[in-house]
């Protein structure tokens, strides 16, 4: 087991077939914490050297790992949506995106990769949660309220207005599929908290606190394919309203981490 988690430097410096490498597997399993930190380097020396994230990005750009597998997944999803009278949706990023930032990782900030195709993706469950959060705040009529219940289902453990349990189910009538990558670019990004002691140790923020530079992996210039599928026939109204809310949520609310500062915004087309 020890050999499995060998330092990333040994892997990066080796002549690997990067065009066939599963980037997600490398990022999740072979990033060595001690190698990334590069202990003992002074600030001046560190600034003159590429960070481990930047170096990894330069290698990731060479990789077209499992591109045929990605195309296969995309085409399979497209055929599934068509056969079920669903709606195929393409999204194109207007900003950088980080999905899975809370995943434990030596970099302190993770990135979600698809286990099979080895590339970043957006889970259908995350898309559904985003759309539901937006829809709950933007229902404009009683009719939309009823359609909302049919789309997302009703929770039998939540009491209704008359203080009685609903007779609904958790299962909604619209299925949200994963967003699979059509194209994307990896990039190094930085956030710099200035008051780490205030956030972490609840100390008073002061001007003499040192800024903490945190580097993390993100994606940009990305396009994804996703889809929504009805569970039964004659659900055009549900599909149309779901698409409307999904479009607004991607363009205004955003998905993933750091949406409050503009990350995760997408232009939506069908």
3D structure, described in words:
This protein is globular. The protein is built from 10 helices and 5 strands, in the order H-H-H-H-H-H-E-H-H-E-E-H-E-H-E. Mean pLDDT is 81; it is low at 1-5, 33-49, 156-160 and 164-168. The chain folds into 2 domains: 1-65, no CATH class; 74-269, no CATH class. It is 36% helix and 16% strand. The protein has helices at residues 8-12, 23-29, 33-37, 43-47, 52-60, 67-83, 124-136, 142-152, 196-201, 236-253, and strands at residues 87-93, 174-176, 180-191, 214-230, 266-269. The protein has 270 residues and is an alpha+beta fold. Helix 8 crosses helix 10. Strands 1, 2, 3, 4 and 5 form a 5-stranded antiparallel sheet that branches.
Percent of residues in β-strands: 15-25%
Tally of individual helices: 10
Q: What gap, in angstroms, lies between the N and C termini?
A: 47 Å
Question: Care to count the β-strands?
Answer: 5
Helicity range: 25-40%
Low-confidence stretches: 1-5, 33-49, 156-160, 164-168
The ordered H/E elements are: HHHHHHEHHEEHEHE
Largest sheet entry? 5 strands, antiparallel
| Broad structural category | alpha+beta
Number of domains: 2
Give the overall average pLDDT: 81
CA radius of gyration: 22 Å
Estimate the global geometry from the Cα principal axes: globular
């Amino acid at each position: 087991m020890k050999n499995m988690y060998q330092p990333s430097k040994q892997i990066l410096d080796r002549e690997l077939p990067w065009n066939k490498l599963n980037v997600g597997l490398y990022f999740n399993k072979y990033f060595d914490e001690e190698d990334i930190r590069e202990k003992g380097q002074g600030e001046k020396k560190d600034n003159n050297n590429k960070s481990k994230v930047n170096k990894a990005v330069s290698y990731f750009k060479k990789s077209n790992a499992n591109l045929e597998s990605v195309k296969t997944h995309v085409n399979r999803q497209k055929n599934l949506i068509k056969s079920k009278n669903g709606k195929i949706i393409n999204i194109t990023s207007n900003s950088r995106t980080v999905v899975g930032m809370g995943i434990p990782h030596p970099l302190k900030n993770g990135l979600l990769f698809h286990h099979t195709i080895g590339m970043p993706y957006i889970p259908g469950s995350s898309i559904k949660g985003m759309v539901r959060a937006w829809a709950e705040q933007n229902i404009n009529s009683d009719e939309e309220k009823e359609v909302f219940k049919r789309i997302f289902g009703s929770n039998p453990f939540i009491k209704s207005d008359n203080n009685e349990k609903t007779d609904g189910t958790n299962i909604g009538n619209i299925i949200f599929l994963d967003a699979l990558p059509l194209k994307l670019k990896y990039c190094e990004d930085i956030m710099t908290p200035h008051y780490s002691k205030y956030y972490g140790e609840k100390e008073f923020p002061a001007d003499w606190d040192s800024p903490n530079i945190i580097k993390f992996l993100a994606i940009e210039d990305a396009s994804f394919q996703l889809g929504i599928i009805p569970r039964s026939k004659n659900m055009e109204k549900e599909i149309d309203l779901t698409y409307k809310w999904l479009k607004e949520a991607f363009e205004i609310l955003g998905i993933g981490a750091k949406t409050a500062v503009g990350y995760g915004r997408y232009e939506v087309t069908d």
